[in-house]
């Protein structure tokens, strides 16, 4: 049986990105561990993504109300909902992630596709994925005493809860832009962690 992995690539610098290097190592190790995996690579910097405006919201609401979930406006939500495993590769920008990630998340958070409300008004997740793996690189060190400055991981944890994804992992290569840092070693250590995680899940 084919297993699907959605690789959401928010690495604006493409192949020059350290985050993409880390994510590619994880995905390769995951494919080696799960040879029947079908990987869908979604580079957000090349996608036709726009913030939802009033017209788009009205159209989306009408589509969801009518049950017409096959419309292209809902394609990203359907793709996200149907994936068995999700990888998000996004560098640490401005305490969280690049703005294109937030725009993408607006598109995938669609009532009646990735989640719905129960009779008590609580959100119930409808996504198939059992895990989301968040891979990132940071110029400084935003763990330990600086952990409260890092806003991407807690946000994504809550989003996974909302969408019904029971497990989330974060692997971060930190301190890459500190003067004198051994960048190669930091990246190599993070890649080892990523490959070990890929072998375990």
* Main sheet overview: 5 strands, parallel
SS strand fraction:
15-25%
Low-confidence stretches: none
- The structural domain count equals 1
Describe this protein's structure:
This protein is α/β, with parallel strands linked by helices. The chain has a single domain (3-200), classed as Flavodoxin domain (Rossmann fold), CATH 3.40.50. Helices cover 38% and strands 19% of the residues. It is built from 6 helices and 7 strands, in the order E-H-E-H-H-E-H-E-E-E-H-E-H. The protein has helices spanning 18-33, 54-66, 75-82, 99-108, 152-163, 183-200; strands at 3-9, 37-43, 85-89, 115-117, 123-125, 131-137, 167-173. The strands form 2 sheets. A 5-stranded parallel beta sheet has the order 2-1-3-6-7, sandwiched between helices. Helix 1 (18-33) runs parallel beside helix 6 (183-200). It is globular. The two termini are 17 Å apart.
Key features of this structure:
single chain, two-stranded antiparallel ribbon, 201 residues, Rossmann fold, alpha/beta, 5-stranded parallel β-sheet
């Amino acid at each position: 049986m084919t297993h699907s992995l959605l690789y959401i690539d928010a690495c604006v610098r493409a192949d020059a990105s350290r985050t993409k290097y880390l994510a590619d190592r994880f995905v390769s190790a995951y494919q080696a561990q799960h040879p029947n995996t079908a990987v869908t690579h979604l580079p957000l910097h090349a996608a036709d993504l726009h913030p939802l405006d009033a017209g788009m919201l009205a159209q989306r609401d009408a589509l969801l109300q009518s049950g017409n979930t096959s419309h292209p406006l809902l394609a990203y939500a359907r793709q996200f909902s149907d994936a068995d495993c999700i990888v998000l590769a996004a560098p640490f920008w401005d305490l969280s992630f690049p703005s294109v990630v937030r725009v993408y998340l607006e598109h995938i958070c669609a009532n009646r596709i990735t989640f719905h409300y129960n009779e008590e008004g609580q959100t119930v997740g409808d996504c198939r994925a059992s895990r989301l793996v968040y891979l990132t690189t940071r110029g400084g060190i935003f763990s330990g005493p600086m952990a409260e400055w890092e806003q991407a991981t807690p946000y994504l944890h809550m989003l996974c809860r909302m969408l019904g994804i029971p497990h989330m992992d974060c692997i971060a290569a930190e301190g890459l832009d500190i003067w004198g840092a051994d960048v190669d070693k930091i990246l190599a250590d993070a890649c080892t962690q990523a490959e070990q995680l890929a072998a375990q899940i």
